[in-house]
Specification:
The protein has helices spanning 40-48, 70-74, 92-102, 107-120, 125-128, 137-149, 167-184, 195-201, 220-225, 230-237, 240-247; strands spanning 2-11, 14-24, 29-33, 55-60, 63-64, 77-81, 155-159, 187-192, 206-210, 213-218. The protein has 251 residues and is of the alpha/beta class. α3 runs parallel beside α6 and α8 runs parallel beside α11. The chain binds adenosine-5'-diphosphate and magnesium ion. The site of magnesium ion has 3 residues, from α1.
Amino acid sequence: MIKVSGGTVRFGGHVALQDVSLTLEAARTTALIGPSGCGKSTLLRLMLGLVEPDSGVVEFDGAPLERANRIAIRKRVGYAIQSGGLFPHMTARRNVELPAQHAGWDRARLDRRVEELRDLMRLTSDALARFPAQLSGGQRQRVALMRALVLDPEVLLLDEPLGALDPVIRGQLQHELRDVFSELNSTVVLVTHDLAEAAYLAPDDIVLMREGAIVQRGSFQTLREEPSAPFVKTFIDSQTERVAALTGGAV
Ligand code: ADP
Ligand code: MG
């Protein structure tokens, strides 16, 4: 699906990603996790073609991501960020419709799709008629997720989509997202700094990063029981109680 080989990204003298290789499998949810500044967002943006590697290759279904095919590939990928990234001067509905309008969809098709997604993300029509500033943080994230899903993408890249929400709303959306991911059956990459969220939403595939590199990839259980480095154990141990609280000890 998406394959990064030897990806290195520098910003000035700073190495944000160092020789990162990662293959994403179809129809699986993967969590990218690690301390702030370790390169999670950069890796996601690299997969989307929003940053170019200084060295290394990104492939999408076997084809290298390059200037010529970037736009076409981006239509097959949904992307949502922490703040939602909605256009403030457009209603929520317009924000959701925008990618599909650019893709040339007619009114009837647009209306059908918005209704489907509204149902999936549990928003009222009334909420969709409002501007982003008139919505709660949780509603804004639901709208951002609707927009990311509108073109029915093969891959969904989510950069700390719940990061800005208060704990109660965040918990609610975590439960809903789990249902959404299993219903969608698409490839999902979820960036988070919260191990409980990673263990809950992507128990089988967690990629733990540190300082621009992948330290260990595996199921939550593997990371917990067979940490490949002291850092992995420290990272897991520091969040164990919260993992147990969210997953109910299921992982
Ligand atoms: P994370 O998402 O894990 O918190 P990022 O991928 O955002 O980390 O950032 C990795 C490192 O690269 C950080 O040190 C950050 O300051 C730096 N960085 C990210 N984007 C840029 C940019 N556009 N210009 C300069 N430095 C950047
Ligand atoms: Mg980030």
